[in-house]
């Protein structure tokens, strides 16, 4: 009935590929260009966002103004302040962030930052953050817990002796103005 050999199928397929290589090259080229533009516009969006936050911070230098922003913007502000302190930062907060809102790297050392817009941070929130970083302490130098308000005495007691630095709103404002940690 049909006498088809495997070698003929391979030969026909190879002839088709060979005769249409320009089409395949064009498809591959378009794919690479699309990937490039996607990556470029991702980078550009992040760069413009960072510039916007830095410009906003130049005009809004007080803790009272920072209290008015939403949680995501507070994470960006915190990242910008840490960049001013010489860290390279990446905002990673959001759903599923596992207790880390910003990753800050300086001199090859990685630090995790938790940002909370609370008037008083409870020990429960600090314990949660410690739980998020404790199993990563081999690769992470320490954690910073940043808030616009303050910390309860119990929270301060819990953090004592642990690789967590508590930064309340007044200290954050001072860090921004003085530029040293």
Structure description:
This protein has 181 residues and is an alpha/beta fold. Strand 2 (102-106) and strand 3 (109-116) form a beta hairpin. Helix 2 crosses helix 4 and helix 5 (123-133) packs parallel to helix 6 (153-159). The protein is 55% helix and 18% strand. The protein has helices spanning 6-19, 21-59, 63-66, 71-84, 123-133, 153-159, 169-178; strands at residues 88-91, 102-106, 109-116, 120-121, 140-147, 150-151, 164-167. The chain folds into two domains: 1-59; 63-178, Trna Endonuclease, Chain: A, domain 1 (3-Layer(aba) Sandwich), CATH 3.40.1350.
- In N-to-C order, the SSE pattern is HHHHEEEEHEEHEH
| CATH topological fold name of the largest domain | Trna Endonuclease, Chain: A, domain 1
Structural class: alpha/beta
Q: Please state roughly what percent of the residues sit in beta strands, choosing from under 5%, 5-15%, 15-25%, 25-35%, 35-45% or over 45%.
A: 15-25%
State the name of the first-level CATH class of the largest domain. Answer: Alpha Beta
Strand line-up in the sheet with most strands = 1-2-3-5-7
How many domain modules? 2
The main pleated sheet reads as:
5 strands, mixed
- Number of DSSP-assigned strands: 7
First-residue to last-residue Cα separation? 84 Å
Q: Portion of residues in helices?
A: 40-55%
Q: What form results from the Cα inertia axes?
A: elongated
Discrete helix count: 7
What's the arrangement of secondary structure elements?
Layout: H1 6-19, H2 21-59, H3 63-66, H4 71-84, E1 88-91, E2 102-106, E3 109-116, E4 120-121, H5 123-133, E5 140-147, E6 150-151, H6 153-159, E7 164-167, H7 169-178
């Amino acid at each position: 009935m049909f006498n088809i050999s495997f070698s003929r199928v391979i030969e026909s397929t190879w002839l088709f590929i060979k005769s249409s290589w320009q089409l395949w090259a064009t498809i591959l080229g378009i794919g690479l260009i699309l990937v490039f533009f996607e990556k470029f516009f991702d980078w550009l969006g992040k760069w413009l966002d960072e510039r916007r936050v830095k410009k906003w911070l130049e005009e809004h230098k007080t803790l009272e103004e920072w209290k008015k922003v939403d949680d995501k913007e507070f994470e960006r502000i915190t990242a910008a302040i840490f960049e001013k302190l010489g860290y390279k930062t990446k905002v990673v907060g959001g759903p599923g962030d596992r207790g880390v809102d910003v990753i800050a790297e300086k001199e090859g050392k990685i630090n995790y930052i938790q940002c909370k817009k609370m008037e008083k941070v409870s020990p429960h929130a600090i314990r949660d953050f410690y739980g998020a970083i404790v199993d990563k302490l081999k690769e992470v130098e320490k954690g910073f817990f940043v808030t616009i308000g303050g910390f309860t005495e119990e929270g301060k007691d819990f953090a004592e002796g642990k690789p967590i630095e508590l930064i309340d709103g007044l200290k954050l404002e001072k860090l921004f103005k003085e530029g040293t940690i």
